[in-house]
Design a protein that fits this description.
The chain contains eleven helices and six strands. Helix 1 packs across helix 8 and helix 7 crosses helix 8. The chain folds into three domains: about 100 residues, no CATH class; about 60 residues, no CATH class; about 100 residues, Lambda Exonuclease, Chain A (Alpha-Beta Complex). About 45% of the residues lie in helices and about 15% in strands. By secondary structure, it is of the alpha/beta class.
Amino acid sequence: MDDMLPGMPAALFVATPTKLLTFADCKRKYRYTYLETPRPSKGPPWAHQTVGAIVHEVLADFFGRWPAARRTPDEVVAKMRSSWRSEGFRDERQSLDWRDRSTSMVLGYLRDSDPYYVPRGVERTVAFTTERASLRGRVDRIDERPARDGSGGTELAIVDYKTGRRPLTSTDARSSLAMALYVLGARRVLHKQCTLVELHHLPTNTVAAADHDDASLARHQRRAESIADDAVTAEARWHEGLTPAQADEAFPPEPSPLCGWCDFVRTCPEGRRAAPPRDSWAGLDDSSPIPLEDAS
């Protein structure tokens, strides 16, 4: 910042929820993901993330790009087949099995959908700024629905698709930093009332919903700003130039049983001691917990 003109405000820290949560969860992973050049080698793609990505793509097409006449089961099946990829699966048999299971999951979710319904946003980027940070993210879907207060107007609802194994609860929806930041961003960008967040869990075809109020949103914003402040301080040290030992001190690992799911565990001795690397397909059937944000 030494070349900043006198009197000019400091640049805002630009971040997505994923970037903030990566810093909060493990500063070494943050360093490897956002700062190291070249980036350390990552492990193989995760099969459960392949499933989540394809399902998200198909639902984005269904709600955001296809006309009503195309929103049929046959079109969904064809799109799932043409979009399918085999990254991370154990073998072709497992890949094809999960293609069929994922197709059934999407068809079940869409069974009662209105082919003429047009959401307010699909894969919509929303953003807002605070005094210290510029926060943005891409929302799976933003619905505009009749307001529940009886005013006759409309309100927005934030919808996030989840394809992981674990059933979700209203606590998951309320505690999600990403969902709260999406609410604040949608309010700023779309100029509409928005308090409702929904996690749509496709494997069980259930919805975990929560209503935010000003107090809960303020708590999430304060948390986001606190993480951003710490990241700014750490990045400033990084850009000053650090020895490897100093870098490890500024960006320490956070070893835990979840390290086995980290993309960089193979290059992190502390992570390998905490948990061995998982097979790339383990997230499909293994009963061990996966971080919610990594479980699609």
